[in-house]
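@channel sequence for tomorrow's demo:
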Amino acid sequence: MNIIEARKHLKKYQAELNKYQSLSRELMGYDDLIHTDKKITYFKKCIANIREQINAH
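structure tokens (generated this afternoon):
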């Protein structure tokens, strides 16, 4: 993955993370909460990995 691609993915994942973090949790069921938390964790890991790769170059 080159730097330009990595930055595109980084922006995409940051936008998705923002979307999930801004959801109202009050009306969610337990399964929805678990799914949302897993997605947030996934996007945070992806963002961290991409940043690490960008900084390594």
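heads up for whoever presents: The two ends are 11 Å apart (CA to CA).
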